[in-house]
Amino acid sequence: MPKYPICINTSNTYTGIGTYASIITEIVGEDHVISLVLDKNQKDRSFPGTKMTPKKWMVGNGYVINSLFPSYLFDLNRSFYHYLDTSIVPVSTDGIVTIHDLYHPKNEPIYMRKIRKFKINKYKKFKNIIAISKTTMKSMIEAGFDEKNIQVIHHGNSKNWKKYDDIENIKRQYGLPRDRKIALTVGDGIFKNNHLVTEALKNSEFIHVHIGNDAGDINFVRLSEEDLNKIMCASDVLIRVSSNEGFGIPPMQATALGVPIVLSKLPVFKELFGKYAFFTEIDKASILESVRHAVKYRDDYLQKSRPYVDYFSFSSFKARMDSYYSKIKN
Fold first, then answer.
1. In the predicted model, is pLDDT for residue 55 greater than 70?
2. What is the pLDDT of residues 89-98, one digit of tens each?
3. Least buried of 25, 97, 208, 302, by fewest C-beta within 10 Å?
4. 243 and 132 in a common domain
């Protein structure tokens, strides 16, 4: 069994990175994950592992100061950590870092862009870097990371992620319609183009159910893993027409449940799901056509996606992570 490092997380469980951190917690154990609450507005949210908050909140919501000067890590008197994202300045360059993407919003303030660049430059000095996809690795190399220090390790699903058979009961439980097909989107952000999905499905046989605050005919927010699992099981198709992604956890989750996925033609989606997903242009007519096609040819999807159910399983992901940890001396 590998020696697990202390893992540092900064995201709540309702986010993509928070989901990744939760699954890492299932591998290394609760006592090996520390979640730092950088933003005081997040202090009441759910975080994996042990939640740590600063002794007192600084300027504004606290995020900038706490991410640049993570004093609580110095108090632990350690130097080797697995940073599960790049939100904070590392206390040393001896550890491991997982990099999800190098994306930044176009409207991001200049000072935040400079802070982000400062943090990334610190992580460029690491010798142990995990990229969550080959696409992310490519962008990292283009940004000046040393290729020999990077290993690609694809995500896996939670050990609790499973199929549910009582779909009619699930629909009743969550108030989902039984006379229309359910098209699901998960997660917020302008780049996910969820508003376009709502417009594309308007006056069709589909109802748009969205997990998050973005547009949807029906919305759910801050769901537990079990609630999300059940609603996805009850869906006829999952849609992810993003203009930027580092990975795409919901398509991976849908794969395990046999729910067809309609995706934009991003390189990372082609890398991960290209053998079986349905792809679309990011416009209303194409989205509706692809969604209908996905539902019609679901049996074909199930056959083609079957090998990837195991690849994205918890046991396979744990094996990949254990192998990596075994090679790292800390």
1. no
2. 999 999 999 9
3. 302
4. no
- The verdict on 253 and 321 lying in the same domain is no
**172 shares its domain with 274:** yes
Q: Are 314 and 158 in contact (CB under 8 A)?
A: yes
Q: Are residues 171 and 126 in the same domain?
A: no
Q: Which domain holds residue 234?
A: 167-311
The dihedral region occupied by 134, where left means phi > 0, alpha psi between -120 and 50, and beta the remainder, is: alpha
Query: Is-contact 216 208, C-beta < 8 A?
Result: yes
**Six-digit token pair at 91?**
């206390």
Lowest-confidence region among 57-71, 81-95, 258-272: 57-71
To which H or E segment does residue 262 belong? strand 261-264
Which CATH number goes with the domain that contains 293? 3.40.50.2000
Taking only the tens place, the pLDDT of each residue in 115-173 is 999 999 999 999 999 999 999 999 999 999 999 999 999 999 999 999 999 999 999 99
Give me the DSSP letters along 188-253. --GGG-HHHHHHHHTTSSEEEEEESSS--SEEE-S--HHHHHHHHHT-SEEEE--S--S--HHHHH
What pTM value is reported for the model?
0.93
Same domain, 139 and 182: no
